[in-house]
Amino acid sequence: MKLSVYSVLFVLAVVPASAHADSVMDCNDDSDPARQIRGCTTVIGRTMLGDPLSTAYMNRGIAYAQRNDLKKAIADFTSSINANPANNFAYYNRGNVYLDLGKPKQAAADYSKAIELAPDMSPAFLNRGLANEMMGERTASIADFRAALALEPTLYAASEGLKRLGAVAEVGE
């Protein structure tokens, strides 16, 4: 039950003028994870501001996740959160890695924090529903799938989750 949505939540890094433009461009270019990692590493080394630093760590974490280097991805998402605790995308992406690692409890906690910070984040509801389903929390899973559909009615994976759980679809799902 893998659901990797790392590239969907790619965020542009903004860094001080002292950082090289090429490194920033590489950090923001998710077409080549190796180049993105190098660029973000340079940006991280030159950036001390919370939001840009958080974004650079998150982008590098996404690149590590794409390369299946999940331990480094988790470390970078955690550093992103430490640099900016309001970065809902960092919680969401770290939750994705935990879900891929088969750690639904940690994933659900991160998705919950992402939802707390951004209550309209339908992918976080969807993935928390998947995590709850993995833990056997049927009622919570159904509620999350329904919340995801309420925000994004065409979210196929949420509809499929409800079908898997034998839940009756409500009007609008």
Task: Write the SSE topology.
Blueprint: H1 21-27, H2 33-46, H3 50-66, H4 70-83, H5 88-100, H6 104-117, H7 122-134, H8 138-151, H9 156-164
Helix pairs in contact: 1-2, 2-3, 3-4, 3-5, 4-5, 5-6, 5-7, 6-7, 7-8, 8-9
Q: Overview of this structure, please?
A:
This protein has 173 residues and is an all-alpha fold. It has two domains: 20-85; 103-173, Tetratricopeptide repeat domain (Serine Threonine Protein Phosphatase 5, Tetratricopeptide repeat), CATH 1.25.40.10. The protein contains nine helices and no strands. 45% of the residues are buried. The model is unreliable at 1-19 (pLDDT under 50).
Question: Keyphrases for this structure?
Answer:
mainly alpha; Serine Threonine Protein Phosphatase 5, Tetratricopeptide repeat; elongated
Q: What's the CATH topology name of the largest domain?
A: Serine Threonine Protein Phosphatase 5, Tetratricopeptide repeat
Shape: elongated
CATH architectural label of the largest domain: Alpha Horseshoe
Oligomer: single chain
Overall mean pLDDT stands at: 86
Distance between the termini: 22 Å
> What is the CATH superfamily classification of the largest domain?
Tetratricopeptide repeat domain
**Number of domain modules:** 2
Rg over C-alpha atoms, rounded to the nearest angstrom = 17 Å
